[in-house]
Amino acid sequence: MAVDVLGMGAVAMDLVLRCEDLPGEDGFAFVREEAWLPGGSCSNVLVTLTSMGVPCAVSAQIGDDPYGDGVRADLDRAGVSTQYLFTKRGGTSLHTLVAVDRRGSRSIFANLGDAFLGLSESQVDVKMLEGVKVFYTDMFAAKPALKLAMLCREMGIPTVFNLEVSPTFMESCKVGREELEEMMSLCHLLCVGREGLRGLTPAPQEKEAALYLNEKYAPEGGVIVTLGGKGAFWAGKGETISIPAFTVPAVDTTGAGDAFAGGFIYARLLRQRDMGTSLAFANACGAIKCQQPGPRFKANEKEVEEFMEGHRSEHAQ
To answer: N or C of the chain: less Cβ packing under 10 Å?
Structure first.
């Protein structure tokens, strides 16, 4: 099956717990609702793209457990090709517990299992990139992600690296600092969340951090720092753009950064829209996701455009 976007990274099942407030230290909260929902950052990005009509495939490793079975079935339903989704016999799949309060804020607890990070370089090869227009990764697992990113560099395929967690967390997931820096040097576009910036740069502010990373690693497509409710900031070659967020009542912010990444890939790398328009489109995808429960974005291009038109007065370019 030919695809436009190949993604390598987190695929998971999430146990979502809804409560009034997130508990503090030694605190507790009453659970109003709970549900098992498919998630994982890479899955969320690819499902965002398939909702726009983009053919996608995922490369990752799951276990032959109920979590893994649920992940595969969901991706198949969403139209994401699972031809490169490997299964470890007797393995435990990545799964998470996500607590979400009434304002949409959340805390996430991850059980890595033993399949997720076990994907090896030998399981991926250049044939997976035939016809691919964009390679997306959150760098799980590191070595096969780097192998594909290096092949993409040789083949002229842009790699989008999305770093949503801190380098310290990456290290706990067997992604060393040298590997992290290698990926930032290889990628076409670096997208970093606030958590990802922690310990990554000496710059005290997010915008300064974007400029620092762009200067140090010089990705051709620039560096995006997502700022949550404050929008996003992009730094490129001698140019910067700051885009405010759309104001919406948040139901669940889980997956908003993934919807942003998927929206940006669609608008900028697949539809070649200008940078400002692409960032605004990505912000709209993130805002729409915040109004939807669960980790997955549910809208098509027309619905995103209608949302942007309805909010044009507060988000004038």
So the answer is: N
Burial class (CB in 10 A: 0-12, 13-18, 19+), 190: buried
Amino acid code (one letter) for 200 = L
Structural contact between residues 262 and 46, judged by C-beta atoms closer than 8 angstroms: yes
Which tokens belong to 74?
A: 């969901």
Q: How far is CA 203 from CA 210, 213, 251, in A?
A: 9, 9, 32
Amino acid, res. 94:
L
Helix/strand/coil for 128 = helix
The pLDDT tens digits along the chain (317 residues) read 789 999 999 999 989 899 999 998 899 999 999 999 899 999 999 999 999 999 999 999 999 999 999 999 999 999 999 999 999 999 999 998 989 899 888 898 989 999 999 999 999 999 999 999 999 999 999 999 999 999 999 999 999 999 989 999 999 999 999 999 999 999 999 999 988 998 899 888 999 999 999 999 999 999 999 998 899 999 999 999 999 999 999 988 889 999 999 999 999 999 999 999 999 999 999 999 999 988 899 999 999 999 999 988 765 54
Q: Which residues contact 289 (CB under 8 A, 6 or more apart)?
A: 253, 255, 256, 258, 259, 296, 297
- The domain that holds 250 is classified in CATH as 3.40.1190.20
| Cβ 5 vs Cβ 56: under 8 Å | yes
Give the domain extent around 124: 5-314
Structurally, how many domains does the chain consist of?
1
Token pair belonging to 303: 């619905």
Contact 259, 288 (CB under 8 A): yes
Token duo for residue 165: 């967690």
List beta partners, residue 57: 6, 81
Alpha-carbon distance of 262 to 297, in angstroms, equals: 9
CB 50 within 8 A of CB 78: yes
